């Protein structure tokens, strides 16, 4: 379970048997071609895979450099790549014979996907979500609850994603007998980083074949946003053996040196540590306690990073950049206007960096961006990010209407 | 004298030892010292000093909050070692560091162990460090005469218990049930059976923890285990009624 | 341009040349196989077609009757079948050499799709939307504006869909030289009912082949909701030559006899008339003035119906039912919980009637539902329909937060 | 006497006739009657009485609102015919029904025409009824001696103008520009050229409408057209200043 010095299993002894059982089951699934076939078929029939690749002709022309293509994970059922992992783990949960799933969620995308999978697979479902996130992400909570999941607001720590993970761990150490922990990103103890990456590798497999079919060649560069790292690992894996530059785009927040960011590798603020079950680069202080992080995109606002990515970065196999909140706002506006796409704020970090670099590339060069999700169901987040006054007036009017209804 | 011998010696006079727990810097080091006074008066045999960590994922709600508040108060690793030195100088009970592995890793394993030893600690409990990841730390500890406390749990197979036993030093921390610290455990055949399974794999003293909260638990453990490990229940007593209630708590607990 | 007695062109003389030009262009496109091929390719690469068919194993088991399958138009880019028509008309607009599009929208789905297409095709775009709808559908307005469209709030009449259509017509009679009117549903003057149906026929073509591939046979019944009729025409067209029962599901609102509904054919309140450029069944009074209509689903809340469907109904080739608002609420809850799907409230009318009839069918029989859209970006509509108190509290908190920011 | 003859006769004394417009029931039938008094005083030659419709898609904002308010007042088709009967009995100008085809269709074409005739109307203007859809209505109209007024527009080809001319009776309504009623039209070469194109296809009198709002428009049309059609500008005068301003409006307009 190590990639260079990163990875491992750092969990309470009580979970040792559970993690071994999971690891064994994962190995069996991985070596059983019928498992992958079942997974692919379910993704096709339930989630609409393969997702297409769209040529951004307008954006490319506007920038005057490389031709930009986008892998459309936003078109998945539930609106992001999260469903790939979740359906995969759902199938695995069935093999484990467990009847209940738990998951953490930050922005709510992974919780939304997990609740969906649980409804589809007939599993009990509890979602842990920081109380701060519950308060600001009510739309996703609403859908999760309507799909039958119990959403628990976590009151510890920063009351955000990392605290939700801790709380999910506490549930797991209590209920591991009937409960599978559907970790949302490619982090945490082995085999999660590898397992989540494996389920997400469907993105890269498709993308490689599609690029060859649509453009007759491979892209020169691939940009993917990196929170935990699952969507980036998903698409990068399709191109590890190729001469393709891979670029991970982290949350630059208010910029380098501001401390209000979540860039583990692009900036110099992170160091190697052990938390949440694994060893990787964390944004932590000299005492080994985790820092508060910040991003305009809740889904990137995480202290750690996938250990495989950390190892690839160390070997110069993946280049890391960070996009600031401001760059993300501008990239989102440009993408909506020129292409009619609404990338999630997370995804927009990848767009921002591709937009920055495309003009200096040749017109015959090709960029591929992984559009990990769509933002159209996260209107509060986007409207607030863009500081839209008409939206705020609308909410005030709605509130007054609801107030009146009650009287 | 090693921890195992210390425990065996104490056991000569007492049918069941007690290990207590304090979260360093919560609510303050002064309060910690007052708590430890009471514990010493009550004849507590061993104390875990928890070094606060930002992600205490093996802890229950009361300790989670205690970790959080202590860090908010500005508690550093250095503060904790200094406090430990003061404690070991003042009290007769032995002291263990308890915490999460990142605190150790960040300081450096060797540096951590040297400071622990300098502060008078005899060992450590790191619940998120499995034996597979503990090779270098355990080796260094052996060199320095510090003892890693290993946890045995109800989900471990016999094979695993044997592996754990091989790594264990001082005593074995038997986790009475699944879950995190702080919830009540129903003492009964399950606990007895678990202790018996652990006993089959090790000659080290056995301490039983997780949910030990009153005299009846103590009575149940007597004869099964060598030591009761009391954490959350003591902190709850302190939070609810300060020194007086904590004193009452231990006096009830250890009354023969 | 007639289907039985329904259809025709009833427009001001000033549009005669424009409509003829459109008709001619449509004929050329229809007889040019490269046009359809270009359309299909664009739908694949931009919108993720073909959309899959999903077996509702849990829902079918729960109901204990027919096996239910769902055609997943909700997985399209922009979240509904509307994109099919809009992309088709965008290609046609290019052939017409026009640089500007206008569209009406009710719930906002069609406006959202049109604004998206306009961004993609680089066209100027104005969307007409009743002022009442603008006020209650701000999320869609927000996205349209961000994609560069101008959204005009129409202050006439009921200030809803039909008034938006009137206003779009007024724009068209002024600006037809450079402007194409992208009518949203399969209504209005010839060739719109036929043209919109043609673009939507991609749904039925795919569905027929997919059902044969997945189940080895054709479905016994197909349910589709009917507002103007575009999604129903879309899927039904794939099965006109087959022994498949087709069921159109209208908006029953508060029920038959309540006058608060939008059921033209399922109830007895509509009569033949001429409005908005064509002849069909309209919900109108004895003076020939249109009635106010009502539905829980804004997209079904329309006075008229596709003339081809009216003709098919007259010939008993399509059966019409209406689902009441209450039935829709229950069907939505059941579908979310059992399958992890969130059908749009419009679509849910089809689910409601399929759910009603499935139990009395044999387990070897097959139902296909056209899931025309997803509701996850229409959270206000759904949360209000389900009268969710936590949602209302969230909005009040948000309003207070926005209020405070301003101070 | 047919409409065409009536117009030609009036033209003997006047270089440019005037057709005015009233939306039945807006703001009320009483107000309509007062407006018509003023129009009659000003020597208006022809009047369109618009039957309100819920979807007046060829009308501009002022008329849209007038249609809507009239329907809200409860105006029925029957009310409109009764009012028309009163108007034709009282005033010397000729009267046309103006409205949308659904009003006709719903009543039944024959019933509509019989009631129109009985009310003293001489014809009708239905802007949403193209000649292709008007076969039966026009045939019945010819039988009953009622005249369908056909619109010619700037977007019509010569071929289309010829078709329209063949269907036209009474006079031709020349639509001065694209768009709906009520916006200002810049009188100039475009209008003159359009009138000339229409003239080339028909011997019927030509009335020019859409945006005629003041005396300068009238002066421009004199010599090009036979009749000026005034709608929105008059309603605006009434709404802004009641009877007095409407009187002033027409007096300015028709001053030679």
UniProtKB/TrEMBL annotation, chains B, D:
Catalysed reactions, semicolon-separated: (1S,2R)-1-C-(indol-3-yl)glycerol 3-phosphate + L-serine = D-glyceraldehyde 3-phosphate + L-tryptophan + H2O
Pfam families, A to Z: Trp_syntA (PF00290)
Any GO CC annotation of this UniProt entry: cytosol
CDD domains: Tryptophan_synthase_alpha (cd04724)
Domain of life: Bacteria
Residues spanning the signal sequence: none
SUPFAM superfamilies named in the record: Ribulose-phoshate binding barrel
EC numbers on record: 4.2.1.20
Record InterPro entries: Aldolase_TIM, RibuloseP-bd_barrel, Trp_synthase_suA
MF annotations from Gene Ontology: tryptophan synthase activity
Keywords of the record: Amino-acid biosynthesis, Aromatic amino acid biosynthesis, Lyase, Tryptophan biosynthesis
Protein's pathway: Amino-acid biosynthesis; L-tryptophan biosynthesis; L-tryptophan from chorismate: step 5/5
Active-site residues from the entry: 48, 59
NCBIfam families: trpA (TIGR00262)
Described function: The alpha subunit is responsible for the aldol cleavage of indoleglycerol phosphate to indole and glyceraldehyde 3-phosphate.
Similarity-based family: Belongs to the TrpA family.
Subunit organization: Tetramer of two alpha and two beta chains.
Record PANTHER family: TRYPTOPHAN SYNTHASE ALPHA CHAIN, CHLOROPLASTIC, TRYPTOPHAN SYNTHASE, ALPHA CHAIN
This protein's name: Tryptophan synthase alpha chain
Species assigned in the record: Gammaproteobacteria bacterium LSUCC0057
């Amino acid at each position: 379970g190590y990639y260079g010095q990163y990875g491992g299993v750092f969990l309470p002894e009580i979970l040792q048997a559970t993690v071994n059982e999971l690891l064994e089951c994962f190995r069996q699934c991985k070596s059983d071609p019928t498992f992958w076939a079942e997974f692919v078929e379910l993704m096709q029939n339930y989630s609409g895979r393969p997702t297409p690749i769209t040529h951004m002709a307008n954006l490319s022309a506007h920038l005057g450099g490389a031709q930009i293509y986008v892998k459309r994970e936003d078109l998945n059922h539930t609106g992001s790549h999260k469903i790939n992992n979740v359906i995969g783990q759902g199938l695995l949960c069935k093999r484990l014979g467990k009847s209940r799933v738990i998951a953490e969620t930050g922005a709510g995308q992974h919780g939304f996907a997990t609740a969906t999978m649980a409804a589809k697979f007939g599993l009990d479902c509890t979602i842990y979500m920081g109380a701060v996130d519950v308060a600001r992400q009510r739309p996703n909570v609403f859908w999760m609850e309507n799909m039958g999941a119990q959403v628990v607001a976590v009151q510890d720590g920063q009351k955000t994603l990392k605290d939700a993970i801790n709380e999910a761990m506490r549930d797991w150490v209590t209920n591991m007998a009937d409960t599978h922990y559907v970790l949302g990103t490619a982090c945490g103890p082995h085999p999660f980083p590898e397992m989540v990456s494996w389920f997400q590798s469907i993105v890269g497999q498709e993308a490689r074949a599609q690029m060859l079919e649509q453009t007759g060649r491979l892209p020169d560069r691939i940009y993917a946003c990196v929170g935990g790292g699952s969507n980036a690992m998903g698409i990068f894996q399709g191109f590890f053996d190729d001469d393709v530059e891979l670029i991970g785009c982290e949350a630059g927040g208010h910029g380098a040196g501001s401390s209000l960011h979540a860039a583990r590798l692009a900036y110099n603020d992170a160091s190697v540590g052990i938390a949440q079950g694994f060893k990787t680069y964390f944004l932590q202080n000299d005492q080994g306690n985790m820092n508060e992080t910040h991003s305009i995109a809740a889904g990137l606002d995480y202290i750690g990073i996938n250990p495989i990515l950390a190892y690839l970065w160390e070997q110069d196999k993946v280049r890391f950049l960070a996009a600031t909140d401001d760059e993300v706002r501008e990239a989102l506006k440009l993408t909506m206007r020129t292409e009619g796409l609404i990338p999630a704020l997370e995804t927009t970090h990848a767009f921002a960096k591709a937009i920055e670099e495309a003009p200096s590339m040749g017109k015959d060069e090709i960029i591929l961006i992984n559009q990990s999700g769509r933002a159209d169901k996260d209107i509060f987040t986007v409207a607030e990010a863009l500081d839209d006054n008409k939206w705020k007036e609308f909410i005030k009017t709605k509130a007054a209407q609801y107030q009146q209804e009650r009287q | 004298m090693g921890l195992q011998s210390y425990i065996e010696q104490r056991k000569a006079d007492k049918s069941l030892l007690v290990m207590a727990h304090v979260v360093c810097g919560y609510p303050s080091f002064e309060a910690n010292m007052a708590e430890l006074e009471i514990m010493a008066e009550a004849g507590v045999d061993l104390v875990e000093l928890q070094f606060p960590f930002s992600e205490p994922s093996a802890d229950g709600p009361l300790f989670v909050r205690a970790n959080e508040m202590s860090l908010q108060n500005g508690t550093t690793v250095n503060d904790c070692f200094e406090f430990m030195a003061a404690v070991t100088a003042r009290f007769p009970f032995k002291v263990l560091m308890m915490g999460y592995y990142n605190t150790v890793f960040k300081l450096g394993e060797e540096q951590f162990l040297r400071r622990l030893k300098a502060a008078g600690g005899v060992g450590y409990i790191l619940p998120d460090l499995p034996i597979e990841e503990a090779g270098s730390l355990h080796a260094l500890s052996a060199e320095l005469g510090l003892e890693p406390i290993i946890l045995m749990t109800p989900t471990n197979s016999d094979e695993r218990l044997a592996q754990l036993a091989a790594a264990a030093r001082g005593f074995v921390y038997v986790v009475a049930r699944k879950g995190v610290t702080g919830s009540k455990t129903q003492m009964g055949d399950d606990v007895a059976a678990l202790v018996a399974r652990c006993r089959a794999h090790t000659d080290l003293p056995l301490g039983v923890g997780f949910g030990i909260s009153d005299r009846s638990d103590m009575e149940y453990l007597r004869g099964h285990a060598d030591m009761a490990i009391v954490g959350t229940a003591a902190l709850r007593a302190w939070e609810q009624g300060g020194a007086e209630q904590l004193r009452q708590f231990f006096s009830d607990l250890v009354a023969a």
